[in-house]
Amino acid sequence: MKLQQYLGGLEGLNDPIDFDTRVFAEPWEKRIFAIHVSMMGLSNHLEGIQDIPSNFDSKYTWADLRERAESMHPFDYFKFRYYEKWVGGVADFLIKGGYINEEEWDAKTAVYLNNADEQLPSVSEPAIDHQVIEYLRKGDSLYRESDRKPQFSAGETVLVRNNHVMLHTRLPGFVRSQKGVIEIVYEGNYTYPNSTGTDGIGEPMPVYCVRFDPKDIWGEHVESKSMIYVDIYEAYMDKLAQ
C-alpha cells in the first residue's frame, strides 16, 4: 500500500495530530464538497439519471476521487489539505473528461484568486437539485445480487494477503500478512465502483468482519483487552494451510 493511502496503525509518526473537529475549515470547502457530491449524484451509472437535464455524462464515484488523490506524489499529498486534494481530483476528472480545458481552469482560478468578492455563477435546475438531494439521502449501494457463495465461515481463522497495489486498495496496511478470525459473514455480495487492477476488487464478492488481536500486529505495547475489527473483501484473504 502506498504510504499516503492509509495512515491508520502506522508507527513512527511523531508530529502532533490536529484534532480539529470542524467539518469545513474554510467556506470554499463547502463548495467543493457540493461539486463532488453533485457529480456523484449525476453519474451516468445511476438508475433514472437519463431523464435529468444535465450536461454531465460520465460515471463518477468515490473511487474516481480516491484514485486521483492517491496518485499524487506523496510529498504533495501530505502538503495539501483534505479538500485541496479534492479540488485536484475533481479538476483532473473534469479536464480529462473534456468538460473544461486547463487554460480555462487556470483563467477562472486566477479570477477568483485575484478578486475574492467576484460573484460566483448561480444556476437553478429543480430536477438536478432534487436528484442530488435524493442521492445524498439514499447513496449508491455497493450491494449486488449474485450467486457467489462465501469461501469462509464465522469462527474460521484466515490469512490476510499482502497484494502488490497498482491503483487503489480497500485493505488497511497494518493487517497485511496477519492472521484474523472471521467474526461476521455479511449477507450478500458487494462490489467496488472501479476495478483496482492487481488488487482484485471490482466484481461482486462476499465481505467479512474480521477480528484481530492487536498484540499480533504491534506487540505487547497495546491494551490487553482490546480487539481490532476490519471489514475485508474476500479477495484479500486466504485459507490457512493445513
Automatic annotation (TrEMBL):
Domain Nitrile hydratase beta subunit: residue ranges: 144-238
Q: Which domain of life is it from?
A: Bacteria
A GO MF annotation of the entry reads: transition metal ion binding
Q: What is its EC number?
A: 4.2.1.84
Q: Which UniProt keywords apply?
A: Lyase
Does the entry feature the keyword Lyase, yes or no? Answer: yes
For this protein, what reaction is catalysed? an aliphatic primary amide = an aliphatic nitrile + H2O
Alphabetized InterPro entries for the sequence: CN_hydtase_beta-like_N, CN_hydtase_beta_C, CN_hydtase_beta_dom_C, Elect_transpt_acc-like_dom_sf, Nitrile_hydratase_bsu
Which Gene3D superfamilies does the UniProt record give?
2.30.30.50, Nitrile hydratase, beta subunit
* Job description of the protein: NHase catalyzes the hydration of various nitrile compounds to the corresponding amides.
The protein's name is nitrile hydratase
**Which source organism does the UniProt entry give?**
Paenibacillus abyssi
